[in-house]
Each structure stands twice: as C-alpha cells, then as structure tokens.
# Entry
Amino acid sequence: MTARRWSLIVLVVVLSVLASWPAIAMAAAAPTKMVMQQPTQLPVQESNPQSVMVIGATLTTADGKPVSNQKVELLMGTDILGKKWASVGTVLTDSAGSARTTFIVLKTGAYDFSAKFPGNDAYGASEAPVLKADFEAAPVEAHEELTLNRIGRWVPWTGLALGVAVWAVLIYVMAQVLILVPRAARRADRRG
# Structure
C-alpha cells in the first residue's frame, strides 16, 4: 500500500473517532433521573393580586444522590398553534438537586409541566415525566382594579405633557420656517 492510501485510512479513522466523540463521552456519563415537584401556589397579596405558582424538578443520579449546580429547563405545555412546550425558565439545581422557579397563572385550568436536563460529560441527559396540575387564577376584577388604580393616576397628566411637548415642537418648527428662514434670506439678498 502506498503512503497516500495509509494517510487516507488514518484520516478516515481519526474523523470517525472525532465524529463519534460526543456519543462516547455521553455514554461514560453517569445516568440521571428527573422528577417534577408538586407545584405550589403562593398566597395572593393585596398589593399584587396575581396568582403566582412555584414549579420545580429534582435531578438525581440513578442511585438517588442529588446532582447540584446543573442547568435544568422547566417547561409548561401550551396549546398555542398546536400542542407545544414553552420554557418557563432555565435554573441551576441547588445542593439538594432541586431547580425551582415561579410563573404567573393567567387563567384557571389544567396545566402540564415537565423538565429537561441536557446532560454533559459527567451526567447523562434526562427528562421528567409530564405532571398535570390544576390552578385557579386570581379574580380578574382584582387585576383590573389594581391596574386602573396604578395607571389612572398618571395617564391624564402624561397625555397632557405629551400633547404640550408635541405642540411646542410644532410651534418651534413653524417659527423657524415662517420667520427666521425668510429673514435670513432677505439679509442674504441685501448683502448680495
């Protein structure tokens, strides 16, 4: 065999090993298990009457030891343009392997949750089974009343200020065009 053929064979073998390296590295990673935590609803407060939910998942090794400091993506099922998963957030696991985040419940009903861990060199990828939970949103009147109270105080004054600013700019531009430009043109004619 010629040196050129040996070089080609070595190149093919090296490229094959490099292409399969991620799969080899993931095979050496410790298997993990992901479990969704039961969501909890925080108490509705008078100052902010929104229904806030806490969702989370626990990441452990196959033998049940917590896996800390790993990124877990928490997901919620949506029906927008067909059944899909929307990310609620990506959170680092704590020392107990728990990753938790909050979201605001906009409507009462059943929700689906899941979580994904993409894996890395040390730990294999895993996905939590779907957890179904029913939530009740805060009454709409509470949201509307709070919003109107907050907005109602400053909207009229902001609108008035914007209107005055627009008219002031318009008057300034008109003065420039109608008074100052013709005056400057007359002066230039006298000099010329």
Notes: The first strand starts at residue 32 and ends at 41. Strands lie at 32-41, 51-61, 71-78, 84-92, 98-105, 109-117, 126-127, 131-135. Residues 142-146 have pLDDT under 50 and may be disordered. DSSP finds three helices and eight strands in the chain.
